[in-house]
Amino acid sequence: MLDQNPPAQLPANPNVAIVGSTGAVGVELLNTLAARGFPLANLKLLASARSAGKEVSFNGGTLIVEELSENSFDDVHVAFFSAGATLSRKFAPIAVAAGALVVDNSSAFRMDPDVPLVVPEANAAAMSGHAGVVANPNCVAAIATVALAPLHKAFNIQRLNLATYQAASGAGAAAMEELRQGTQAYLNGDDFQPEVLPHPYAFNFFSHNADIEDNGYNGEENKVIAEVRRIMERPALPIGVTCIRVPILRAHGMAISIEFDQPVSPEQARALLQDAPGVKLVDDREANYFPMPVDASGQEDVLVGRIREDLGDPSGRSLSIFVVGDQLLKGAALNAVQIAEQFLPA
Amino acid sequence: MLDQNPPAQLPANPNVAIVGSTGAVGVELLNTLAARGFPLANLKLLASARSAGKEVSFNGGTLIVEELSENSFDDVHVAFFSAGATLSRKFAPIAVAAGALVVDNSSAFRMDPDVPLVVPEANAAAMSGHAGVVANPNCVAAIATVALAPLHKAFNIQRLNLATYQAASGAGAAAMEELRQGTQAYLNGDDFQPEVLPHPYAFNFFSHNADIEDNGYNGEENKVIAEVRRIMERPALPIGVTCIRVPILRAHGMAISIEFDQPVSPEQARALLQDAPGVKLVDDREANYFPMPVDASGQEDVLVGRIREDLGDPSGRSLSIFVVGDQLLKGAALNAVQIAEQFLPA
């Protein structure tokens, strides 16, 4: 499918396109490009006919959303796709054929062996084998691997167990608004019928609503397993995971137990994480201060704390950590922009 | 300390006292005694001088809170203590000396070898050794062991890992109100300074605020470890646990991974839990319907679902489950009343 070899490097000032710029992730793509000073020459916003003509603010100016078509990518150097797997499957090959590098935020290509699945802090080297498309991982996989990669590189990870605390933003801007509105209705004592998510969200949590698959895990959990394995280059790593949506707006948390192939002390892990890219250590036992959504939201760094022995493993080879990251940033938009940045001239 | 041997059985219509009847658990003790038709002859509400004189509704009538004193228990057959460990340490021995059975909801006696720590569904037999006081467990330990006991009795549990999703009610009625008020302030865009809990609670979660102890676990987590071991009569069971407060009003959730000493299938576990006392199976993969606080709140049963192989353990000896229970009921008041019911004549 992706048989054309696009340039290994972007020009110093590339033309950028965003497919799906009005969703929760699209808005953060614009914010992140602006905040990081991505050296774009021109920015084109693309969407279905329904959204074409919408005005979007960017860097103090206003851009008009154009209708996505087969000719949209003719002058584009890098295209960010954030409009669902169906659209990515159709238009990513068209963009690549036109010479663009595609950074795809959907699940369309994440398990395609020809498409690197990349968290730059964890496996930037995997990008060298790309054939035009680089896939941006599931939000839980991206946030988890920022914290896990430095540990895995120093001490081989043998087994993982994750329980997640996932925010509304993973289901899009409409779910965030439903959480706000449903909560206000609850506080007012009013009835409220959820429409975006299948369960009441006000002061409630629920098992992630992705369909349950044959192994008893839901689609989100199976993505986490498959993608963490791929990013960490451990195709058979045993991973157990429970994905729960909690009433939080935009930061995901996860309690992770990690078994290594050798004893690792909390101090060794803390020293590695202290210097790890993309990680901010928030691990103040004295002050009882650890990673929280209020601190992670709007932050590029993934917060890591509660680093301690996993007392469920008497061998001394296991640690437990608690990780919180902004779902829209490191879980989506920021990671996508960081991927594109790897292709800019040094 | 507890050297007097109180009657092994209560009279058919015992006189009941509640120490601490105006807190979140106290209110649910009253509700639970009424809802279950506990055959009390007389009900006495006891509190510090500060709360004495308050009026409390019970079963359509009104009771006046009396000031707790050394003479409060002279005619009492069973006393529920729910006013903190300090008060329990002082007054439980006085109540026992006066001939009362004490059911203590504080942490004062939970690890005292002379005091049974009881979840009736799990270890009712342990009560036979009591010397006047029976301890009511920590809420997480109580809810978890309702689900774990039937599995443990059939297939020996070798290792546990829990990640909790804990409600405001665990920190009392004031924390529940702070969650409501803080959330309303957030939605209004107003500043809000938390006073009961150390962190913002609106659309936020945080590591349980009990002090971190020498092993890197907080006091809540160490209670869960010690109490689950005691209730399951496995004093050295390896247990890893992460306790997180989520913005929920009154139901605790927990993702639990369980390693057995032999392979156990999800079907075997489901069959056992289907018939287990105090458990309601909520495990509909087709409808993607699993335990949630909105369903568990106000319910006596502990909801159990997401029963599946723990893919983090390639041996096939591990299962993962998701459990939600009402923190004020099975996590506190209901379990206390159930303990007292065991002493009523058949």
From TrEMBL, chains A, B:
This is Aspartate-semialdehyde dehydrogenase. It comes from Actibacterium pelagium. Homodimer. It catalyses: L-aspartate 4-semialdehyde + phosphate + NADP(+) = 4-phospho-L-aspartate + NADPH + H(+). The keyword NADP applies. NADP(+) binds at residues 22-25, 50-51, 169-170, 327. The keyword Calcium does not apply. InterPro entries: Asp_semialdehyde_DH, Asp_semialdehyde_DH_beta, NAD(P)-bd_dom_sf, Semialdehyde_DH_NAD-bd, Semialdhyde_DH_dimer_dom. GO terms for molecular function: aspartate-semialdehyde dehydrogenase activity; NAD binding; NADP binding; protein dimerization activity. Substrate binds at residues 166, 245. Its EC number is 1.2.1.11. Pathway: Amino-acid biosynthesis; L-lysine biosynthesis via DAP pathway; (S)-tetrahydrodipicolinate from L-aspartate: step 2/4; Amino-acid biosynthesis; L-methionine biosynthesis via de novo pathway; L-homoserine from L-aspartate: step 2/3; Amino-acid biosynthesis; L-threonine biosynthesis; L-threonine from L-aspartate: step 2/5. Transmembrane segments: none annotated. Gene3D superfamilies: Dihydrodipicolinate Reductase, domain 2, NAD(P)-binding Rossmann-like Domain. Keywords: Amino-acid biosynthesis, Diaminopimelate biosynthesis, Lysine biosynthesis, Methionine biosynthesis, NADP, Oxidoreductase, Threonine biosynthesis. Residues 15-130 form the Semialdehyde dehydrogenase NAD-binding domain. CDD domains: ASADH_C_bac_euk_like, VcASADH2_like_N. HAMAP family: ASADH (MF_02121). Belongs to the aspartate-semialdehyde dehydrogenase family. GO terms for biological process: 'de novo' L-methionine biosynthetic process; diaminopimelate biosynthetic process; isoleucine biosynthetic process; lysine biosynthetic process via diaminopimelate; threonine biosynthetic process. Phosphate binds at residue 110. Catalyzes the NADPH-dependent formation of L-aspartate-semialdehyde (L-ASA) by the reductive dephosphorylation of L-aspartyl-4-phosphate. The active site is at 139 (acyl-thioester intermediate), 252 (proton acceptor).
